[in-house]
Amino acid sequence: MSTDKRKAPNDDAYLSQPSQLVKRQKSVPRDTGNAVAIAGTSSTGGALIKAIPRTSALQAPIMELTGHSGEIFAVRFDPTGEHIASGSFDRSVLLWNTYGECQNYGQINGHKGAILDLQWARDGRSIYTATTDSLVADWDVETGQRIRRHIGHEDIVNTIDVSRRGVEIIISGSDDGTIGVWDPRVKDAVDYLETNFPITSVAIGDTGTEIYSGGIENDIKVWDLRQKVVVNHLRGHADTITSLGVSPDGQSLLSNSMDSTARTWDIRPFAAPDRTLKVFEGAPYGLEKNLIRASWSPKGDQIAAGSGDRTVCVWDADSGKLLYKLPGHKGTVNDVRFMPGAEPIIVSASSDRNLLLGELGK
Predict the structure, then answer these.
(1) Are 239 and 257 in contact (CB under 8 A)?
(2) Residue boundaries of the structural domains of the chain
(3) Any idea what DSSP says for residue 33?
(4) What residues does 326 pair with on adjacent strands?
(5) Calpha distance 121→140 (Å, rounded)
(6) Which of 114, 172, 297, 356 has the maximal Cβ count within 10 Å?
(7) Are strands 72-77 and 157-162 parallel, antiparallel or unpaired?
(8) Strands 354-359 and 62-66
(9) Could you give the CA distance from residue 281 to residue 359 in angstroms, rounded to a whole number?
(10) Could you please report the per-residue DSSP string of 276-336?
(11) Each residue of 302-360: pLDDT tens digit?
C-alpha cells in the first residue's frame, strides 16, 4: 500500500476574500421528516400548516452561521455548550454564541496553514488546534493570543484529542506517521508513538492509558501508552479511518471511514474477539478526500456523521436505525457535533463555508 502523504491544501486561495459575518435564520427546514412548514402563499394566507413543538432554546429551529472564507473542517461545542469554535481552510478559528443570534464574538488567527482539527481545553479557557503547518497550538479564548506552539511533527497534523480525566494531555496524529503526546504546559512532546503510515484519526480512552489510532492502512490500532506498544487491532473497515471517538461511558469506540460506513466497537477489557457492535450506512463519502468525522450524543444513544452527499446522518446507536438525514448544506459535511447537556442540538460544518445549528426532535 502506498504511503504517499496527502498534499497540504493551497492555503492562499481564499486569503483575498474578506470575511463577512452574517447570522440569519435558515429558511428551509433541515429535518424534512419532522419539518415545521409555514406557508407564505396567498392560498393559505400565511397559515401554519404543521406545527412541531420546539425542543430547544435556540432562537429558531435552524440557524445558519456564515463568516468563514474557506472550507470548514472542524467544529466543537465548548464544555458548557454555550459556545462553538470552528476551524477552517482560511487559517482561522471563529468563536460563536450558541444561543440568541449566534453572534460571532471572537476570531483566532496566527496559523500559516489550514486548521484541520480543534479541541477545547477541559476548562473551556483555551483551544488546541491541529494544522497543515505541522503544529499543535494552544490559544487563549479570551484574548485570541497564542499561549504555546507545540513543535515536533514533521508533516501535516490531521487530528487531536484531549484526555477526559486525570492530568490533561493532548494527543495528535500526523502524516509523518507519528502520534504526539503533549503536556499543554510544555512546548516539546512528552513522547511519540511511531507507525509506518500517516495517522488520520486519534482518540484517548477513559483511563488515559489507552490510545486509539487510525490511518490509511484501514485498521484501528489500540496502544498501551505506558508501554508504547500496540496491544490490539480492530479490523473491518475497507478504507482510510477518518475519525475516532470514545463513547461517553467509555465502553465503546466510534469510527468513521472513507468506505462510507461508521462503526462502533466494544473496547471493554475482556470483550469477545470480534469487537464490532454495529455498522452504520447511509452517509456516502463522495469524491473529496477530506477527513469526514462522526460523533456521539451526550448520552451515547445516538451517533452522527457528515457525508459527501451534503447531508448529516443521525442513527440510533443501539439498533443502527437511521433516524435523520438532514439536508441544508451545499457542500460536503466535514464534521458534526452534538451539544453537551439535555437539549437535542446539533451543529455541522461544511465545505460550503457555513455552519448549520439546529434542533432535533425528541
Answers:
(1) yes
(2) 64-194
(3) G
(4) 312
(5) 10
(6) 172
(7) unpaired
(8) antiparallel
(9) 22
(10) EEEEEE-----S------EEE-TTSSEEEE--TTS-EEEEETTT--EEEEE---SS-EEEE
(11) 999 999 999 999 999 999 999 999 999 999 999 999 999 999 999 999 999 999 999 99
Residue type, 360: L
CATH number for domain 64-194, candidates 3.40.250.10, 2.60.40.3950, 3.40.50.2000, 2.130.10.10: 2.130.10.10
* Cα-to-chain-centroid distance, residue 164: 16
Over residues 105-112, mean pLDDT: 95
Q: How far is CA 196 from CA 5, 34, 63, 137, 201, in A?
A: 12, 47, 43, 25, 15
Phi, psi of 284 (to 5 degrees): -60, 145
State the DSSP H helix or E strand holding residue 119, giving kind and residue range, or none if neither. strand 115-120
Nearest alpha-carbon partner for 313 in 339, 285, 351: 285
